[in-house]
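Team,

Forwarding the record for the chain on the shared tracking sheet. I've put the sequence and predicted structure together so nobody has to dig through attachments.
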Amino acid sequence: MNKKSIGEIDIIELVFDQKNKEYGAYALRKAYQFFLSIGLWSAIFLFCILTALPSILKLLISKDPPIIYQQKIVQITNLPDPPSIKAVKENSIRTEGKKVESLKVVKSESDESISSTLNIFDQIADTTELDNIYQESSLNVTIKYPFGWSFIDQNIGKKLDGVTFWSTTTEYNPPPLVHLEVRDKDLFNQNKYKKSIILDDAVVFFNDPEVVSDYYSQTFYFRTETEADFSLKLTMKGERAFKSFIPTFYGMLKSFKFAES
């Protein structure tokens, strides 16, 4: 028996020391943990090989050519210029904040069939009551409005978004409303309008007045070459009141000025 201290000797080793040595079981029992570990890791390795074998064989015997992705850059040239109101004017429009002095109605063949007893261009502009002036610096907007009227304007950030004018007198009940709105140039759709007029600094598009529940309204869209477009809309209740206010509204249209900021 090997020399060991009394504290290190296992009682089983002490009893079966001679027998284990005679039959060779002693060495096997001492090494069983080593062989158990070898067998366990061998089984795990074999399992991994068998699991991955089908995928490996599929890759080795595949006849399909490998897929290669290529990136191509296509350069487009000779693109047409974006739409512009120059197409409807003989000369390029230059905005210098000019006052609108004269209006010329341009009608297509389809416009000839449109009858409008309330078309403001059939009337004479009346500027006698336009004693007040609204001025705004972010878009250099100027417009005259009647005496006894008030207004409220709205801004987005530091730029004008719109102005609403209304009468504070008792001449009309309910009072007329004139709304000046700053429009997004990219959202303009010329097909929505049937008529147009050419000014020195813009092309104005419009339709005949619309009526909803006895409220008459008409919108004039100013297509400009500044950073923004504009629209002016009149809304009034009753045909007679609408017709009576048309000359004044026409005067507001003529007084409207804008320029590059």
